[in-house]
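User: Quick sanity check before I run a bigger batch. Here is a single chain. Can you write out its predicted 3D structure?
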Amino acid sequence: MIDLPIRVLLVDDQALVRAGFRTILESEPGIEVVGEAGDGQAGIDAARALNPDVICMDVQMPGVDGLTATREIVADSGIRSAVLVLTTFNREDYLFEALAHGASGFLLKNATPEALIEAVQVLARGDALLAPDVTRRVIEKFSGVHGAGPHPPAAPASATAPAPAPAPNTAPVESVATVDSAPADSAAQALAELTDREAEVLNLLALGLANAEIAGRLYLGEATVKTHVSKVLLKLGLRDRVQAVVFAYEHGVVTPGATA
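Assistant: Done. Predicted structure follows.
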């Protein structure tokens, strides 16, 4: 069986940036850049025409910006692409808007070439990716803004990693862009349908653990953990593990200050 290359679309208004990304990505066997676009609308059109596996999306562009383009692409049932948002701006509003609009990954442009390649590979596999510092900021934001909700957290595992830095002063909850999650009563019903093991997996997902780390923590095979993750996402009506992190903190699945 021949593995097909990962097909990537680059959307950025700077031609030199696109050229740099193309050089980095095409240096990796198995990745092919199939198109480029210089603004959000051109990116949407190219996504519909090419249906790539992964779209590397800039945020600030003339005309239609990257966040709007991401929303349009994710909402289009004919496009199966995963969107990786790339930006030079380390701003929380961009991060949370990107998550709210359906991005499957978020990476700063000062990341290493290896990190960009890995991010594209992760999204192409159908997983979602947040850089470790971004995951920490999601956790800090939601643990600082959202108190523990009415749903008890899964039984905590013994702490093996240092606690994340204390949450900074946060904006009021209404200013935080979140996923379009279910109303509280619907969320409670969905959470009640999780098995004890699935609740544990959700809890550890929300703490930023990867599948291999969850497998080690729960003494399970990684394939078993992946099955549990899929079932959690299906039962909660979530697209990927990024949304699972946000959902868990929105609905009090993890107590503020909880650590991995």
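Residues 145-181 have pLDDT under 50 and may be disordered.

User: Great, the batch can go ahead then.
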